[in-house]
């Protein structure tokens, strides 16, 4: 008998061809598909170099990107582990192998190293987790390459394994042990032999299949082999051979010539198992990349909702929030498709999400885009945030759709004032609600610091220009450092804006030096205030510069609340960091004495602002009470800015949700100012097209608009609000009708969410629903998510799904080519119902000035009360034909909008007589916050 050689080279070639075809087909499915293998080598052993070259060649042949990472032999174990960690966390790396043996001068435990490779990227199959999986017949991980190659060779030779007696010589964790386990799960009867086994040759002669991985050259003789057996030789040894030019020749652990006379099949060395090891490595790498692609293309996340057990009546928000144990934020991040290096945890319940996710998903189509706004609210609020969260809980936990809630970060002003936090309420809220409402990840504090540093630099520059002559001022602005004087990059940008095309400070003429050094800020035309994230009425007007060190250069100014800072609006409107940087640079803080704008870039501040805001660029991931993902980012003041969460958070959410997913984001207040600004400012800046608008309505608010008595925080509701009153309700329905009309003007389906309160009657709720459907709503739905969580918003979710699938014709309310006054008229007449617009002489003059400076091409951001469609908060319902007076106007050049002022809009709220402060305390024994909502 002469054995049939089992050519590993031939089989490996076939496998590589199959893999090349698989990669090409996957790239048709997704252009982003690009399998990548990282090969980590410590030192420079020549035998390792040979193996690595084989792997690199095979990878190139298949279409796998292989990166050879060469590390010095003096690397420490800690340094090597750190490198492996960085590869584990990289989304672009699908497979990692560490070439063994390690060629290092320091002691490094190889088992620790192989276990450091993530099981999901362990394409060598040497991590203990993957080895354990193989041992129990779980092949969901990666099978070690050489054992997998052995099984493949046996099968492709046409040899059946089931029922055969198999003997494995060797019990190493790399070959012997795992191949024995694989053969066992192929239904063979397996005997493992090792150095302590007695009567070894007698045992091997019982084997129908003999696998040898003993590491001794030609140890197994022909007499050890059962006639007709299949012999798989995993060994490779160099022995002396004077007939070879190198003086060496490669042989296996089996005496091939002898075994070939007895066996039916035998693998040669070289050209047997060796090429198969490389082929299996490539197969595992492509499998790893395919798994990542499948996860990316999966119609739904493997999201595990959190169960809630609503109580009736529901307890307080804080009691409900604390009754739920949130998922570890890293678990939620994994469920929605994020990688560890894209998640920076702040404790266990919140994390910053890297903007690099947008690049990774650049070829992925985003999900459906939904804005949640309201009717004209009562001072108590109508549950817009609660509805947003109830909707997303219904979509994700009850309808199995990928869905995100994207929310603004609440200011501490209302948290410690009267309104309270903005985490939603009842069984539809963000958890932990204390963390959501207090500090979060510090973004508002970063905005505060950046804003105030800019103010400090501006005042300092004014002082230094007033107290220094031209020459010393220039010399201090461009000092000699080690005998060399040069402009910084930001100073070069100022020179360019001034038309001075020079880079050598000493080459400037005296006139040019003065032009560069003096901003000549007109202290009567400063537009930049300091900010603090608290309600503090006594900061509405202050005098600065009263210290004797300021030499009498005092001026009047004011503080705004931090969320009113233009920096906050810019964070919310930036499409990427470069866009944010440009907007920050363009912020106009004052006019000079010639009426020209002075920018943050002129003050040298752009880079410093970016550094302070670096972490604030990234949205914060949290979760709802039912474990749905929530992105929290930015919180621009809704009265004088656009009042929406960030473009970046929305884009991230849409990419992660995928084409079949849903992203619901909130707009401030009602459709008249919140939703209009969302469409005309935010969507214009982002380029994203909304699919649906949800408008939240309550019986309580509509009764107020029908003529009901005032509703005040902290005061008991009047009887008309807690008892059925269809007449009063019917009179207020006009307000709902106006908001439906507003939404329809933008060409998107409008879904009305009727947020049920405990005292509402079915007759009242049905009256609202019938009116909405008769007056242009796409759907009108009764919602009970406050009391029931997502289950109470399932009908709303179904309506939103239907609306997003319906045809829409989104359009902006106005063209940017219109004049400032024409844009104001368009908004005031069509969104508010005004009949006439009046302007003060000062506003007319500023509009003329803004037009000359090119600001007339900006969208309009109306600053108006949220408590009425008019400029008077006392006027309810839906009046028409009224006169609207514009009594002030300013421009946020960096944010990119013009702000007309209607009535008195405070940029710094004040604390009431009895703020929430009285109820808030910290339990010093448990560390829990008490009295918060």
UniProtKB/TrEMBL annotation:
Main location: cytoplasm
Entry keywords, A to Z: Amino-acid biosynthesis, ATP-binding, Cytoplasm, Histidine biosynthesis, Hydrolase, Ligase, Methionine biosynthesis, Multifunctional enzyme, NADP, Nucleotide-binding, One-carbon metabolism, Oxidoreductase, Purine biosynthesis
GO terms for MF: ATP binding; formate-tetrahydrofolate ligase activity; methenyltetrahydrofolate cyclohydrolase activity; methylenetetrahydrofolate dehydrogenase (NADP+) activity
Subcellular location, record wording: Cytoplasm
Catalytic activity line of the entry: (6R)-5,10-methylene-5,6,7,8-tetrahydrofolate + NADP(+) = (6R)-5,10-methenyltetrahydrofolate + NADPH; (6S)-5,6,7,8-tetrahydrofolate + formate + ATP = (6R)-10-formyltetrahydrofolate + ADP + phosphate; (6R)-5,10-methenyltetrahydrofolate + H2O = (6R)-10-formyltetrahydrofolate + H(+)
BP GO terms, sorted: 10-formyltetrahydrofolate biosynthetic process; folic acid metabolic process; L-histidine biosynthetic process; methionine biosynthetic process; purine nucleotide biosynthetic process; tetrahydrofolate interconversion
Annotated Gene Ontology cellular component terms: cytosol
Quaternary context: Homodimer.
Name the record gives this protein: C-1-tetrahydrofolate synthase, cytoplasmic
Biological source species: Arctia plantaginis
């Amino acid at each position: 008998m002469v054995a049939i050689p089992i050519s590993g080279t031939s089989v490996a070639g076939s496998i590589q061809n199959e893999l090349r075809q698989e990669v090409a087909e996957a790239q048709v499915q997704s252009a982003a598909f690009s399998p990548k293998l990282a090969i980590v080598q410590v030192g420079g052993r020549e035998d390792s170099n040979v193996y690595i070259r084989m792997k690199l060649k095979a990878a190139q042949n298949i279409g796998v990107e292989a990166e050879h990472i060469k590390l010095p032999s003096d690397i420490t174990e800690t340094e090597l582990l750190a490198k492996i960690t960085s590869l584990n966390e990289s989304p672009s790396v699908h497979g990692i192998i560490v070439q063994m043996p390690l060629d290092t001068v320091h002691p490094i435990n190889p088992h620790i190293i192989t276990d450091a490779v993530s099981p999901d990227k362990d394409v060598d199959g040497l991590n203990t987790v993957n080895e354990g999986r193989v041992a129990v017949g779980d092949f969901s991980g990666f099978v070690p390459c050489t054992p997998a190659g052995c099984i493949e060779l046996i099968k492709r030779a046409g040899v059946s394994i089931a029922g055969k007696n198999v003997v494995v010589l060797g019990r190493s964790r790399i070959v012997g042990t795992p191949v024995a386990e694989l053969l066992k799960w192929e239904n063979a009867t397996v005997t493992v032999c090792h150095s302590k086994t007695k009567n070894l040759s007698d045992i091997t002669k019982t084997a129908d299949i003999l696998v040898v991985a003993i590491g001794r050259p030609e140890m197994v003789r022909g007499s050890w082999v059962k006639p007709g057996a299949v012999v798989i030789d995993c060994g490779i040894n160099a022995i002396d051979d004077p007939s070879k030019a190198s003086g060496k020749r490669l042989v296996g652990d089996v005496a091939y010539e002898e075994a070939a006379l007895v066996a039916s099949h035998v693998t040669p060395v070289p050209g047997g198992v060796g090429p198969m090891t490389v082929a299996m490595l490539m197969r595992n790498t492509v499998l790893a990349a395919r798994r990542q692609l499948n996860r990316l293309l999966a119609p739904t996340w493997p999201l595990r909702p959190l169960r809630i057990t609503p109580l009736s009546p529901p307890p307080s928000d804080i009691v409900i929030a604390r009754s739920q144990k949130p998922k570890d934020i890293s678990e939620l991040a994994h469920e929605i498709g994020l990688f560890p290096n894209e998640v920076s945890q702040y404790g266990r319940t919140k994390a910053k999400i890297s903007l690099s996710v947008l690049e990774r998903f650049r070829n992925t189509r985003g999900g459906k885009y939904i804005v949640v706004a309201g009717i004209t609210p009562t001072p108590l609020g109508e549950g817009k945030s609660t509805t947003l969260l109830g909707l997303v809980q219904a979509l994700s936990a009850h309808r199995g759709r990928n869905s995100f809630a994207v929310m603004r970060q609440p200011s501490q002003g209302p948290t410690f004032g009267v309104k309270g936090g903005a985490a939603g309420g009842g069984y539809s809220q963000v958890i932990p609600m204390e963390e959501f409402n207090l500090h979060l990840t510090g973004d508002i504090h970063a905005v505060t610091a950046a804003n105030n540093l800019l103010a400090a630099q501006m005042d300092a520059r004014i002082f230094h220009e007033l107290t220094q002559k031209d020459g010393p001022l220039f010399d201090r602005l461009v000092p000699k450092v080690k005998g060399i004087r040069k402009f910084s990059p930001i100073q070069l940008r100022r020179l360019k804006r001034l038309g001075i095309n020079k880079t050598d400070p000493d080459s400037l003429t005296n006139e040019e030096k003065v032009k560069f050094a003096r901003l000549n800020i007109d202290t009567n035309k400063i537009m930049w205030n300091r900010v603090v994230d608290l309600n503090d009425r006594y900061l509405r007007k202050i005098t600065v510069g009263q210290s004797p060190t300021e030499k009498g250069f005092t001026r009047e100014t004011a503080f705004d609340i931090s969320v009113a800072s233009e920096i906050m609006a810019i964070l919310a409107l930036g499409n990427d960091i470069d866009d944010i940087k440009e907007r920050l640079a363009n912020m106009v803080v004052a006019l000079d004495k010639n009426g020209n704008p002075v920018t943050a870039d002129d003050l040298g501040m752009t880079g410093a602002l970016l550094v302070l805001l670096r972490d604030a660029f990234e949205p914060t991931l949290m979760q709802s009470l039912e474990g749905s993902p929530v992105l929290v980012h930015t919180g621009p003041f809704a009265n004088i800015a656009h009042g929406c969460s960030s473009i970046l958070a929305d884009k991230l959410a849409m990419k992660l949700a995928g084409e079949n997913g849903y992203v619901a984001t909130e707009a401030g207040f009602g459709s008249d100012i919140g939703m209009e600004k969302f469409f005309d400012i935010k969507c214009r800046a982002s380029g994203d097209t909304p699919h649906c608008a949800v408008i939240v309505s309550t019986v309580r608010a509509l009764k107020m608009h029908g003529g009901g008595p005032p509703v005040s925080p902290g005061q008991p509701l009047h009887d008309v609000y807690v008892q059925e009153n269809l007449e009063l309700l019917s009179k207020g329905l006009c307000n709902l009708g106006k908001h439906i009309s507003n939404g329809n003007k933008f060409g998107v389906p409008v879904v009305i969410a009727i947020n049920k309160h405990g005292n509402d009657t079915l007759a009242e709720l049905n009256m609202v629903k019938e009116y909405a459907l008769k007056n242009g709503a796409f759907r009108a739905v009764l919602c009970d998510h406050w009391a029931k969580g997502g289950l109470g918003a399932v009908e709303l979710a179904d309506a939103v799904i239907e609306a997003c699938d319906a045809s829409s014709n989104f359009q902006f309310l106005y063209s940017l080519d219109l004049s400032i006054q024409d844009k104001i008229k368009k908004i005031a007449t069509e969104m508010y119902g005004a009949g006439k617009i009046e302007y003060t002489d000062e506003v007319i003059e500023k509009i003329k000035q803004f037009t000359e400076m090119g600001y007339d091409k900006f969208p309009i951001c109306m600053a108006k009360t949220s408590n009425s469609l008019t400029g008077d908060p006392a006027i309810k319902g839906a009046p028409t034909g009224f006169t609207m007076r514009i009594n002030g106007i300013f421009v946020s050049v960096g944010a990119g909008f013009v702000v007309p002022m209607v009535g008195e809009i405070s940029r710094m709220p004040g604390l009431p007589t009895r703020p929430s402060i009285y109820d808030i305390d910290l339990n010093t024994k448990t560390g829990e916050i008490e009295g918060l909502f």
